[in-house]
Amino acid sequence: MASNILQVPFRRSHSVTLSNAITQYISSKYDQRPDMFAEDLLIIERLRNEAINVQEPHVSGVSRLVTYAAQLKWLGGKFPVDVISQNNIRFELANVIFNLAALYSQLAFSVNRTTSDGLKQACNYFCQAAGVLTHLRSDILPDLRTSPPEDMDDMTLQSLEQLLLAQAQECFWQKAVKDGLKDASIARLAAKVSDFYAEAGDHAVKSNAISPEWIHHMTAKHHHFAAAAQYRQSLDCLEKRKYGEEVARLRDSEACVNEALKESRWINRTVLGDLQGLKTRVTEDLKRAEKDNDIIYLNPVPPKSELKLIDRASMVAAKAPSQVTDAISMLGENGPLGQPLFSKLVPYAVHIAASIYSDRRDRLINENIIGELENMTDKLRE
């Protein structure tokens, strides 16, 4: 069914057996035996299977992805980057975090947005989705030490973040309309929706992963909400008897709607229907306002350049859940994300440091003690 918002699709996970890779690595690189960690190996494989089988928007999927991601973050300190070549632990973590963001966006999409509670819930899910992508871009991918895939490059993620915030703000705007807030307030909310969509589109055109259809959608929505903002501001002008300014804002609103309708070949019928509904209202109000001003009020109509810019009211922000950003601190004896796996395995950095220490110790003993003893023995024999 067509919708006036978008949901981020899941990334497909590769079929790898993480437990086998970890077993081989422990066998070849550590002094500890893999069978010491048999239970942990079973658990990590189960957590992975549960996470990669999250393929539909159900809230139960959040805990599966979050729990697996927490263990992967913990394991990142136990193993080097290249445990499974390209499909290393950090790459696996990036996939899981991306899919968590996708899940939040799909949960928002599936919520009933015809009610105030549904709109609040959808707004919150979109903000969480944006926050998870911000965390992925800022904290996870820099540790990858390789170029991320196209759908996780910087421009793509920034575009998706702004798109999700645009849709969160749109939910807030829709609730404001439903609750009957003042036109000036609704105008400020709509103007910010337009800004978010504009930023999403600006990043999208620099991405190789965002589809042309999505770019057309973002462009149409940017102009749509610019038009909606001016329309609501015109209603505020009418209430305040600023008849000339009312006409000017309605004219600009009509121009913005017409700009959005240039995308009509590529946008779905729901978005197109929203635009056509707005155009009908704007056209009717403009016709009435021009007639009233020409015959009754005779106020000068200012050019667009003289219109005061509509203030922005941003009501949303990217906010990743704490179990994502502070995952490791939530692992422990009674931690909400469970016991940390492989806790008895010496961290890789410590293992390397111990090896270096052993080598240096042996070299010092050979050079300074054994060497000196051999010299003294030779002197005694002489």
UniProtKB/TrEMBL annotation:
Pfam family, one: BRO1
GO cellular component, as recorded: endosome
Cross-referenced InterPro entries: BRO1_dom, BRO1_sf
Domain BRO1 intervals: 4-380
Family membership: Belongs to the palA/RIM20 family.
UniProt-recorded name of the protein: Signal transduction protein PalA
Organism annotation: Aspergillus kawachii (White koji mold)
